Structures are given as structure tokens and as C-alpha cells.
Amino acid sequence: GVFAHLEMLEARAHEAAVKQEEMEQQEEKLARLKARVQELRLQRDELRAKVDLQQKGQLGKEGVVSDPAQPSARAVLEWKIKSVKAMLQVFYLTGISGKLTKRGVCFCISTAYEGTYLDSYHLDLLTKAEVQIHRHSVPIFIPLEQIAKKYLQTDIRRFLSVLSDHLNAYAGRRYQADQLQDRFSDRIEGTLQRNSLCNLLVFNYNVSRKSKTFPFNARLLYGDPCCSLPTEVTVSCTPDAPASLAEMAAAHSDLFRRVALHKAFRSFSSTEGSVD
Amino acid sequence: MDVTVAEYIRRTVLKIPRDEIKTMLQKWGFLSETQLQTVNFHQIKENISQDVVQLCEENSADIKQAAVLDIIYNHIYPNKRVWSVYQMNKTGEETEFFDLTDFKKKFKRRLRSALKNVTINFREYEDNAVWIRIAWGTPYTKPNQYKTSYVVYHSQTPYVFISVSVLKSNLPLLCQALVVASNYHDIREMELRSHSLNSLKDIVFKRYSQNFQTYYPRPLQERNVAPESGDLRIIQENRNEKERIQRVNQEVFGDGPQPKLEFAQYKLETMFKSDPKMDVLDEKEPFRCLVKFSSPHLLESLKSLAPAGMADAPLSPLLTCIPQKARNYFKIREKKGFFPGSFVSP
Predict the structure, then answer these.
(1) What whole-number distance in Å separates Cα of residue B265 and Cα of residue A69?
(2) What are A142-187's pLDDT values in tens digits?
(3) Which residues lie in coiled coils (chain A) (predicted)?
(4) Do A196 and B157 touch (CB under 8 A)?
């Protein structure tokens, strides 16, 4: 009765569904094959064109295998990658470069001093809500928080520029102090007193004149954190030294204010060589 | 020479591993090279120390020089002590011009004005670190050279590394002297402790390797490409998952070595979440629980958990935030508001 009827209807529905599915699959297959045919036709045309070109080329010039006007896709890709890499390298060499990240942007500040590339420092910024520093590798003695408080929200360019100035000046000061310790250690008496920011240097050094050595004491204060030259220099000699030495001390003091520390010392060596 | 000084020098020399004694005495510089030549450094340490004390007697060593030897020993073997990190604060914005002589003067003056019986020694090192050794006495007794505190301070940084010995009562005095000498306003203890002084420095000075995304192409040698093993019959079934774990691990931990910490401690003050039917706790009180992870090298072991298959990657941020948050002691309380969960106290 009713159940048998229901069963029959169910079976019919099932058959219809199955047929429907089969038809859909057939159509899909057909579409795929058609697309494949298109592909193959395209390839055939390309190859035919190549063969034609080759034949024409051989009639004309000698030994031209492929048309330079139609470089291979691979060569084009390689050239593109190379030029992008070169562009990124250029950005890196300018000192401030960045890369977009999932949550913001990551900046890289590279420092350099007079042609020598020094350390690089990174800043991972979040930019979704307000701009925030997520993490960084800036040394702790650089006043990053102060600079961020002033500029980060309002003017990111200025923030990066000021931070870069601080980092480059620090790198330059440290480079000079390191050079002094490495290259002119024979002229330094005792230890070179420095600090983390390299903005206060105190040391004793020797000046030789007419085969006698005189001790000088130098105190270099770098008042401007964005500058790699000192703002205040005090060079003193012993109280009983001759007057000419006092003059020399003044001259040295002036020199240290104008010229990089290791270069100043290099000039001492050269002038002494000529005097003796 | 004072008998106590002689004994102190003798005991300090006994601490040094035998092969290192000569080098350390040379670094000390108190005994001349000719004097050192007279000592046989191959005999037992007991005898070496007696010989050294004899030589120090000839040079009339006093407690200041003996203290310097102690600083040198602790500088070379800092991991024998537990170091805590303290952070100083100040409101001024002027540029710092750290003058070492000024610092030392202010520190000594401040400390001595409160407690006359202290031995204070300084030693500076190449990395702009000042080591301070303080031996504490009381208003009525001389300084006890065996009850010493060590302070390591890098100029123009807000962090101080302190290794206190037994006398914790002198800590406020020490902190005050540091704040005054370095021109800061206040100081607080951070939740960061370890035996490895250099690792603590790496964490707060951000010298550990963090993985920053840059375009600057790294030389290919730096990328970890595991060499394919020779046997082609071995097929990696879940290569994709392995590579994903490597990538996630590298993003979190970076490429370089991790700072060395021995433990991480989590104090839970959260509610115990159980099936209401089980009714484990009658009163709804926070379930007090302390979870402590210990390891000879905690961060390296956390880094190797996921590749070893012992944990899912990425690891819980409670574990991976340790270097960035610069802490290894945490208090976890209930998050207040609609969403139950936990939140880490600052």
C-alpha cells in the first residue's frame, strides 16, 4: 500500500539523482577536454611559428638559432628577479629600508661611517591601530622611547630619520674610538676611558718632539647625540711643560673638534716623522 | 699582612681550577712574573695556595688587592652566582654623559654615608661594564669578606645586574647608592633571574637573535637546508608538516643560539575549571598552583619541543614570550570581564 508506493518514489528519486550526477560529471569532463584541446592548439601554433622563424633565420643569416626579439619566458623572469634584487640592495645601501609584514612593517636601519658599513638595527612596527613598536634590536642606550614619543605617531619619516641620525652618529663615534684603540695603542698611556654611547672619551697620549715624549691628557665630550665630532675638547699638558707645548695642546684641541679622532692621530704621526 | 687577608687569599686561590690559577694570578698583576716563576703550579692546590700566600706576604697584600682577585675570579666564573636584573627609571630627557670617576665617587660616598664598614672595589671592562664588589659589615663589625654582593652596570643603560649574597637587608641601601651614582630616580626588581649573567645581558640589551623580516638577501649558506640523506628508499611522509614546524619555530625563536635560562616559573591564581557535576571545590576560590619549568638550557629545549614532536607548533605564547618580555617569573590571574581565560600580569 502506502509504504510500497513511498519506496517506489524513493527509488525513482534516487535514480534521478544518480543520473543527474552522471550528467554533471560528463559535462565537467567535456569542458576539461575542450580546455586541453585549446591548450594543445596554442602550443602547436607556437611551435609552428618557431619552426617558421628558424627556417627564415637560416635562409638569411648564419647560426641564429632563436630570435633575440623574442626572449624565452625564463630569461625574462630571471632578468626581472635580478633587477628587483638590485633595487632592494640599493634601498638597503641607502641606510633605511623596510618590508611590509602581516601586522605592519619591519624597518632596517643600516649604519655607516666614511665609507665603511657598520651594524644594522631592526624595528618591527605594528600599524593596525596606532603605530607601535612591537620589537626591535636598537641598543638600550639609544633614546628610542624618547624619539618615538616625539615623532612615531605624527611623522614616521621624521622618526626614522632622527633615529637613523642617532644610530649613525653612535656608530661613527664607536668606530673612531675602536680605531684609536686598535691602531694607535702605542701612543695611548693607560686605558681609554669610554662609555656605552661613546660620547665621553678621556685618555692620556704621548707626543714626541725632538726625541723627547710629553704626556697630554685629552677629554672629548660629544654633546650632540646626532654628531660624530666632539662639541667640547680639553687638551692639557703637565704644568711644568714649555710654552710651545701649551700651543700644541691648543692646536690639538682644535683639531679634535674638526677631524675624526683616528685621522687626527694619523696626522700626528706624519708631522712628527717630518719634524724629527 | 693581616691574617684574615692571608686566609681570604688562600681560600680564593683554592676556588680556582688548578689549570687556571697561573693565568688568573697574571691577570691580577699583583705578583711579578719572576715571583710566579717560583711557584710550582703542578702540585696539589693546597700547596699552591700556601705558596701564593707566602708571595703575597712578601708584597704586603692588603684587603683591597685581595678583593681585586675575587672580582677577577667572579668575572671569569659569573655562573656560580645567581643574578637578578633591576631596572632604573628617570624622567629627564638630557643626554647622558657617563663619567666613570664621577660614578665611583658618588657611589662610594652614598654607601659609606649610611654604613661605614664596607669594602668597595671597582673594576672596568672593555664592554663598558663596571663591576662593583661590596663586602658588608655592620655599624659595629668590620666587613665580612665572605658576605659579598656583586653589581654589574653598563654605562648609560637603565639595567643593573645584582648578585646578592645572604645579607638581603643591605639591598635597599645598595639600590639607593646605584640610583644616586647613575643619575636615575628609582629602581625596581624585574622578574628575571638566572645563573648566566651574559644571557641576562643578551635578553635586556636585545642582543639575542630575533628574526626580523627583511628583504636583504641572506647568503644561501645561512639558510638551514638539511642535507638530503643518501638513502632514497626513505620517504618523508609528512614533509609538509615538518617544514611548517621548522618555519614557525624559526619565526618565533630566530636562527641563533638562545639566551641561557635555567627555569621559568608560573604562579597560577586562576579558578579551577572542572565539570560542574564533579564539584571538586565547594567554594569558588582561585586554585593556587605553581608551575615551574627547569632545564640546563630552558629556551633551547623549548625550541626543540616542536621539531622533536613533543608539542604542537606554535608553542604557547606564555613560553615563547620570555626573552621579549624579559621575565621568567609570571603571575597568571583570571581575565576580568566577559571572556573567561587567563591574563598575564605586567
Answers:
(1) 68
(2) 999 999 999 998 888 999 999 999 999 999 999 999 999 998 888 8
(3) 6-57
(4) yes
- The secondary element (H helix, E strand) that includes residue B4 is helix B3-15
Q: Distance between CA atoms of A133 and A253, rounded to whole angstroms?
A: 41
> Chain B closest CA to A222's CA: distance in Å?
8
Q: How many CB atoms lie within 10 A of CB A89?
A: 13
Q: Do A92 and B159 make contact, defined as CB atoms within 8 angstroms? A: no
Identify whether the C-beta of residue A140 lies closer than 8 Å to the C-beta of residue B204. yes
Q: How open is the CA angle B107-B111-B116, to the nearest 5 degrees?
A: 135
Which grid coordinates belong to A130?
596606532
Q: Which residues of B touch A200 (CB under 8 A)?
A: 97-99
Give yes or no for residue A240 having a pLDDT over 80.
Answer: no
Average pLDDT over residues B323-337: 82
Taking a C-beta distance cutoff of 8 angstroms, is the pair B157, B103 a contact?
A: no
Strand partners, A188: A205
- Return the pLDDT at B338: 37
pLDDT tens per residue, range B143-166: 989 989 999 999 989 999 999 776
Q: Is the ipTM of this complex over 0.85?
A: no
Residue A136 has which C-alpha cell? 626591535
- In this prediction, residue B71 carries a pLDDT of 95
Chain A closest-CA separation from residue B317 CA (Å): 15
**Which distant-in-sequence residues (6+ apart) come within 8 Å of A184 by Cβ?**
A205, A262, A265
Q: Which of B228, B222, B219 is nearest to B250 (CA)?
A: B222
Cβ proximity of B303 and B270 under 8 Å: no
* Chain B residue with Cα closest to A102: B213
Is 0.80 surpassed by the pTM of this model? no
pLDDT at A100 over 50: yes
Q: What is the dihedral of CA B97, B100, B102, B107, to 10 degrees?
A: 120
The C-alpha atoms of residue A181 and residue A192 are separated, in whole angstroms, by 7
